[in-house]
Protein 1
Amino acid sequence: MPPEGPLIGSGMKALIAEAAIAADMEHRGFLNYGGGNFVEVGSNANDSNPVVWRITVSDGKVQREMIYGSESDSSVPKVEDYSHLQADVFDYWHKAIDDAFVDWEDFPSANPLGWDKGAVLKGAAEIRVNAHSDDNTGEASGANVRLDSDISNLMTRTGQLNGEYAEAFNEKYVTKLRPVLDNLQALTMVLAYSLAGEEELFRRTREQIAQVANDSLKAMQASGPKGGDITGLKIFLIVVGAVCAGVGAVAAGGVAVPVALKVAASLTGAGASASGGLLGALVKPPPEPEPIPLGADHPSKVLTNLVNGLKDINTRIRTEEQLLVDLLDATYTDAAPATAAGPFNIAKPELIGKTGSSVLESHQVLVDKETIAKITELWIPSIVGDLNACTAELTIGASGWTRPAGIGLSATGPWSSYSKLQTGVADLVKDTATELTGSAESLQAAAADIGLSDEHVNESYAAQARKITEDNINY
């Protein structure tokens, strides 16, 4: 794997150009003496009046030396006859190699995308209410244990309430909270998978270009008239399948590909069939492409192969990035109707401000002030804290996606589609937090109306919730 920093330095490009110059000069009949020195020995082939000369070209500068005979002989070439070599060989090859790699030499590191992926995975973990089972070991892990417990407690205790608000609270918030959070977590994982795919594509692109540069040097070194058969030197397109490998490498709850398939199934089950289908397809490796010829018997042919190979690599990168665009756009479209109550959103509070015994019937309530306080001041605020913690991680910027404008779909690749979905998912998570907070306020107000609210008890549990949120206690 290439080191971090500039991918192809001026030293490597100079080595490739110098190898091309040497091969080119050899094809022109010069002997390579090394160090940029080339010699051609000529004669007039006249035994009765022999004339022999030596032409030395050193870094493009031409010198003529007479070995035998007179330089006035008509067969002796003039120094200016070789002046074209400066432009045609020495200047040409340095520029040609610079131009071939101009879009690639500063291709950025994949590390920033990896850091961003880690942040989004952290956000997804905050709202993961269902553990994933490892298909190989059968072990389940990965859920936010405290969140799972809070929701279970919420379901149990709110089932002991009765009245207009209590019934609405159960129906519209508590019973739907777990599946909604599960679906929101699936949407968040799509963001993580997209970052993982792009990260692997960046990593493989750097490895691909570094290998192409090394192989181009070998190809140029062997492209002279005595280079032998090196037509078997090829470019193997390792960028193909990068997105699939990146998605498959994301481990959530101890497993990777099975999790991606489970997330795809969750999306499909939530009505996001397009995104679920695309994610499911991404974990299937594509066919291995045919390698691209690089080696040839002349440096000009190697250059043509190099330029065409880099174009093909870029085309393959665009194809990989289009897979991510399709997934991100389909997910955004599938989740767009979630502004209303549905699989990705709970209902907005409808009973705020209502009072009276119809809201919370005191004679049928089986809980005390302490339990009401746990519901409104501990469990719901702690759940809201997890939602807010998730949202805080969904702030990925474009910098990690940025590369030279000529590579991939654009200067930031699929970033536009990623950003749109990220904003949409963050808004849904924020809405859920707001709706839960409103529901807790309504329940607390109703409890106060019937004497089931105690300010001291409320503050005690609110303090616990603040501690849980501040320390991000998830177990």
Protein 2
Amino acid sequence: MSIERTPMCREVILLFTIFTYVFIEFYLYSSSWFVDVYGEGKSIPTLTTFLIPVLFLFLEIKLILYAFLCILFSLFLVYFGNLYIITLIKVVFISCFGLFFKKEKVIIALMFSVLFSLMFAMVCVSFFGDLNQKEYYPHKGLVPTFGFLNPNTTAYIIFFLFQVAVLFFSIYLSREKLFFLVVFSSPLFLSLLLYVESRTQIINFFLFIFLLFYFRFVGFKNYRVATCLLFSLCVAPFVLIYLYVVGDSFVYDLNLLLAQRIQHSANIFLLEAFPPLISGFDVAEYLPLDIFIVRYLYQGGLVLILSLVFVSFKVLRNVNIYGSDVDYFIYASVISTWAVGLTESYIFTVPFNFVLFFFFLTERQSSYVKT
């Protein structure tokens, strides 16, 4: 049965089921009570993540083939010892539906699955954990986490919900009405971020809003500006590490401000030298490694990082060439994602990923334009 001939309702339900499964898995393993009971690092076997969606795709030959290839690739990575890149495969798996389904169907399913899975997680936390849970930090005191492992995870979930909401309403509202929605809803989400006291996500929130307005209303050479910003964000960690190693006083002070993130990243470069090509290795002894590109350069391999950089630039190029009714949102999301990667290493995990999601959506659009 062809995907294009299936009713829209069936396709949305199919996508909703898959997204909800993956999001609930993430929310549960990010909650304190679940980790206390089952232990940190425990997870539903990766193959199950791919096999369960296949049960809902038994009539869709293309997707069955894709899921099967994901399983084979997972076995390949497990055999060669790279267990960490499997998280990326999950992201690719749920993001790829932008290639098989129309954008509107994917976004509708994404919005409702995010809301449903988050409510499900909150109910679980209220019954088995503590929604009033707080973590103590020497420089902040007691900080609320709403039952999750730390306030940064809670803050990023709030920010992710804001992004999905903006993307969802972009389907139904004009750019002007969407602008007013962003303006009036921003204080609500910002107040939640201030409540959990996550400096990283507060800065990222303001950056995202600024980029939205710039790419939407200024519109001066958007593609060139976005490309330059993305290149700078990819190169910046290595420049900072180099300056730290040679003893630059400004970078040394910046390292203290960033809770020694630059120092930790410099240590793994000095001790391990050239990163692995494909296999990656366990970086537990070098933790915390909060600069994304550095951590996954060694944990996932050089090929992984180069692939993610290529995909990010390809998204910007696709939007510039083939256009998009949410081009400003795509530009802002890609740049803000890499920006927060300067201080956080979880930006390409499920569900905090729009780069690959947009890659498949824009690839689908470009294929239609070419044909």
Protein 3
Amino acid sequence: MDNLLAISYRFPPQTYPLAIRVDYFLTHLARTHRVRAITSAPGAALDGVEVIPVRERDASRFKHVMKRLRLGKISDLLIWPDLFVPWILPALYAGYRAVQQERPDALLSFAMPYSGSVVAALLKKLTGLPLILNLNDSPTCPDVESTFPTRAHAWASQTLEDWLVQTADAVVYVSKRNMERVQARQPEAHRSKFHLIRRGVRITDIPQRTAAPERPADAPVRIVYTGGLSGWHMHTRSITSTASRPMQWAKRAWNAWNHWGRYVASPTDPRSHTPVYIGQAVQQLLETHPEWVGRVEVHVYGNTFPESVVQEVLSRYDLESIVHVHGPRPHEEALQLMHAADILFLTLPDRPNGTPGGRISAKTYEYLTTDRPILAAVPPGENHDYLSDKPGVFLSRPCDVEHLCSHLEPLIASTLHGDLPFFDRTLLTKTLDSTRRAEAFAELVGRLPSSASAAPAAAAA
């Protein structure tokens, strides 16, 4: 397996979690293999990798126009499996040409978006080349894809995932629960294809540990979250409307139309994917400890929602003086912010029915390279399971303000008294090294048969 052709819509220098994973997998492979990559990413470049650009194509403009015409329901029904369906044919053409010009030994595909994996699977069908499929998120993950336009769309997504798995020669997942859930529904002949290779962290990117500077007596405790949050609009929807009664009826009718036929495979509560509940926990502690007022702050870095929406939510809960929301930061700066925080905060959408989910946040691994306490407000499932035995991690349900308070109170008190809680995760950090993940993936490539049969199962947890 000396010649490889990769297909990934996301690609360095983009900073999506998938692009970062593609970076350390393909960089490692390029040291010993010839690697070409088909991608849409603007300015795509990677040392040792020949990039075959295929212009970005997606259905976002169509979706926007339909929404403005109040026909968003129709676009929801038509666009599947994701917005990047228009990229499939031009990418497939480019891939087929690349194979004809120089036949590779194997195909590699990185998703999401899933349209890129469709390209790879079709290319395998056309050429007979072995295929390794890397799924960062499952199309049927009960956390990521919990709601579908119709029940038929849910069935189609499961059918697509099964087809991708059964077409590929090996499939890589980052979530153990998702992998086992999909594996359990496959025919016996395909169950050996599954491999667990979690996300990792490039150790060289981690800020060097230095002696902690003396903490100023008046310095506030900084609770830091890095990354996007998706639940802001769920809080604005619950704000009392000032519109006239007929207008409220019209809005309710319009909302009913847009939700008509929608299928909820697994209910989630996106409201917890905001800093509202951690803010309320701090608010409650300030009432108990008035001497802490002005000395505890929550900082969110990576917001992409309109500032007006964010301010509306913070104002509603009277959190403006506690929660501070900042825009996206370069990955290097985000890592520095993590390591400089007093307390790190992680949250995911809650699962009201208590069933376990399959999602694990990419920042989980980056947080674990720090020596800071981690307050993880996550529902039952993969993220909770993975963090349950890690040092310095304090687990809570996402919306449980009382439980958040019970964790925060001693951490804040210790920090304000100059006794900063630190946790030695040196040995754990070594296991998170992206090089180890890349080596596991390269080993899988090396064991990939030249004929279409599955390689033995392996796991790099």
